[in-house]
Amino acid sequence: MATLAELASLRTDLDEHSIDHLLRLTASWSLLSDLSFSDMLLMAKVDEPSNRGAENFVVLGQMRPNNRSTLLNDDLVGTTQRADAWPLVRLAFESGTMNVGEVKIDKVDEVVPVWCVPVRFGTRIVAVMVRLQGPLRGPASLYEQAYLSIFERLCSMVANATFPYREEDVAGPGMPRVGDGIILIDGLGEVEFATPNATNALHRLGIYASAEGHTLREMGLRVRVVERSLEFAIPAMEEIDRGQDVAIMFHCVPLIDHNIATGVIVLVRDVSDLRQLNRVVLNKEAAVREVHHRVKNNLQTISSLLRLQARRSDEVETRNALQEAERRIRSIAVVHEVLSREPGEEVVFDEIVRSLVLLVEDTVLALHPVEIIVNGELGTLSTDLATPLAVALAELLTNAVEHAFVDFGDNDNEQVGVVTLNLFQEGGSAVAEIRDNGRGLGEDFSLEVPTSLGLSIVRDLVRTQLHGTIEMKSVPNAEGGGTFVRVVVPTTARL
Question: Most CB contacts within 10 A, which of 16, 24, 95, 231?
Fold first, then answer.
């Protein structure tokens, strides 16, 4: 389904700023739908070559009430509505004033009371907001009357281009619904009425006195955003806590008439459980971060012990074996170091690659100048893939730096060895290609019978643990010579 912005760009002549105004309206018009107990439609004039000479409307948005059954079971967004079927919508476009009457809706037996509210932006009517009122369940209660009164005031603001507000942080999915609780405050800051849910929220904050006819400050509750909304006629939010167990969100919507705030709707939501859940999640993340930090420290301790043992060994083979083991442990520690900063099920692998390159450059002693170049990126990978892949890449880079340029030739002493690591995603797999300009592989080389422990580790990690493929081959001299390694591992779920 196309978005409002896409529909408006394709099928109307509205400019970018007008579309942004409509996006802000639909981000907060759940409040209007709930206050009026009604379905809402947003219509704009169609401007298409095929529509020349006719007047039709396109439905850009639709909202159903949260506190009343809907009249519209079908989704009308994107549909074309004939102007002669919606005469009050056409009249609202022409007059720029709100029009009230009735309309016949498909699949609804009786005519439906309708309000057509012009949506003004600047000096132009850019759309019409249509309220389709369902049948009332008897005489309106005091709360319903108050809701409808607020709705009428907001409709006047829509027609005068003072609603929706320009502030982007006071609308959207996080905006409380009417059922969470409402406090209506007049222009003097006194409470006109409070719904039962709003009263319960005040009780949670320790306010038990009757609210009506008093300011929140007189009741012992300082809500600065209410004062700010009244003084500056701008929306605002504030969360008030009472210890660790109670958190109440106050979402203030000023009611504006001639650029003066004549009252404030305070949408109240008890977010105590949500804040408690956030604390649990934060504590869990801190614990996971600490675990990774300790694992990294333990691996570094083991690495240091292996390094000390290697220095004490008189046997060259033993010393080299200990140094290789120490480097492999450090490559695993690199992954845990990144996870200790951002714990989770996924890790930004490009940070690991940078650390691996530095690790290889610091720990490998090459007899020839070597430069490692990294191109591309793999983005975010799962942690169970990142650790073995990091070890495999560290082994391949080390192998290239240590062995590709042995016996490089006396005439090439001034030539710099280059190892290039290309990283990219391809068809649901992570691909790493390592190319050097060294001497290439021997004629009898076979990955199935590797000549070193490092290549055995890489082969087994890629094929067995990562369920991927690895290819190693010499590059013909006509193509620059050297060795080419390609590792492909699936990033989707593995058995």
Answer: 24
Give the pLDDT of the chain (495 residues) as one tens digit per residue. 678 999 999 999 999 999 999 999 998 898 899 999 999 999 999 987 766 666 899 999 999 998 888 888 889 999 999 988 999 999 999 999 999 999 888 777 788 899 999 999 988 999 999 999 876 666 667 778 889 999 999 999 999 999 988 765 555 555 677 888 899 999 998 999 888 888 888 888 888 888 888 888 888 888 888 888 888 888 888 888 887 788 888 888 999 988 889 999 999 888 877 777 766 666 666 666 677 677 778 777 887 888 788 888 888 888 777 877 777 777 777 766 766 666 667 778 888 888 888 877 776 655 567 788 999 988 888 878 888 888 888 888 888 887 777 765 554 455 678 889 999 998 889 999 999 888 888 778 888 876 677 788 888 888 888 899 999 888 887 777 888 999 999 987 554
* Closest among 224, 222, 230, 248 to 189, alpha carbons compared: 230
CA distance 272 to 243: 10
DSSP character for 264? E
CA angle at 19 for the pair 17 and 24, rounded to the nearest 5°: 95
pTM tops 0.85: no
The separation between CA 402 and the C-alpha centre of its own chain, rounded to angstroms, equals 44
Select from 236, 270, 304 the last residue of a domain: 270
Same domain, 352 and 463: yes
Expressed as residue numbers, the domain containing 27 is 4-161
